[in-house]
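Reviewers of the previous submission asked for a worked example of the structure-prediction workflow described in the proposal, so we include one complete record here. The input consisted solely of the amino acid sequence. No template or homolog information was supplied to the procedure at any stage.
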Amino acid sequence: MKMRAMIVVVAGLAVTAGAFGQPGEGRRGGRGGGGEFWQQIGRQMRGDPLRVRDVERAAELVGMTEDQKAAAKTLLEGYEQQLRSMREEQQAQREEAMEAMRDSGDTSGFQAMRDQQTKQREKQSQLETQLLGDVKALLKPEQAEKWTGVEASIRRDQRLRRGLMSGERLNVRDIIHDMKLEGDAASAAEGILQQYDVEIDRQLVARDQLMDQPMDFRGFQDPDAMETMQKRMTERREASVKVRDVNKRFATQVEGVLPDGQREAFKARVQEGTYPEIFRRTSGSEAIAKAMAMPDLSPEQMEQVVKIEEDYKAKLGSWQPKAVKAWDEMETQMTPDRMMGGGARDAMRPLGDLRGERRELDRTTLDALKKVLTEDQAKELPELEREEGGGGGGRRRAPRDV
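From that input alone, the workflow returned the following structure tokens.
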């Protein structure tokens, strides 16, 4: 029962992680044991670290020179090395705690791990402050004047990345930035985004305060303490919903001020950001793109590959709305009281079935391409993503179901 209770609480901390597995930096899973799932848990517990993209965005916004960018990259590499050491220590501690739980039901290792993570979160914060300070020191006076806004943007993006519900990690300002709006559309969007910055920051701070409160794993040895843990999980979930709802509301407002041509592009980006694992690039689409790029493809082969692509897009386009509906229904059902009652698996099952459908579509698409291509051409195709716990041959492992 204690192991089951641990899984329930971890699932609660992740909210809905693992149904497809919300991606982090990329969509590829980690090492054995559900690597991406544990990365998601880690983001919630310790906060997401600074990334190359954060430094690149800062460089763009303040107008860094190439020499400044190179120096900033060197600083980031040093920061990342220190984080890797911290993560290796965390992984070893987690494995020890899981082994103790399996062998004797001892939960003390999880409490020790949580206490250590609190200390490491503080250390990570110190490292980030030092890194950003060192990057700022590289700037010229006119560049440094822009730094306050840039740093606030970086911190906001970090906080957004801790989210795991659909739309909770959506960055509306990022999407508009990438679209390079001009004229009236840019002015109208900026007016909305300034309000967005204030409101999303307020909800992120409130959510993170709840996330950063220690979870007392000693409660597994005291049934009465489970009620307190459930209450904490409920509060965290409600805070995540508020972040998600702010993103949805302001995305709708921004959409309303965009010209028709840009509106559709924005809606597509919002959809991808809200359900990244549903709308991600698949092994089937990668295989089709690889086949079309082959220089030795004959006209007859190209014609058949185009037909395969059209069929694939039609079927995937039919699958995606079903997956979105199933995801939304799962998030509605995945309340802490239902998880405590053992209903998590039933809530996740429809998404698991849909993941199987997408995998089968990818498999049949790869098979169809191999029939069109020569043996040597077919060897250049990417391999099908393999299932959790599957055998060799696959180049990626699917994120683990909770």
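Confidence is low (pLDDT under 50) at residues 11-19, 21-38, 388-402. We consider this example representative of the routine output the project will generate in years two and three.
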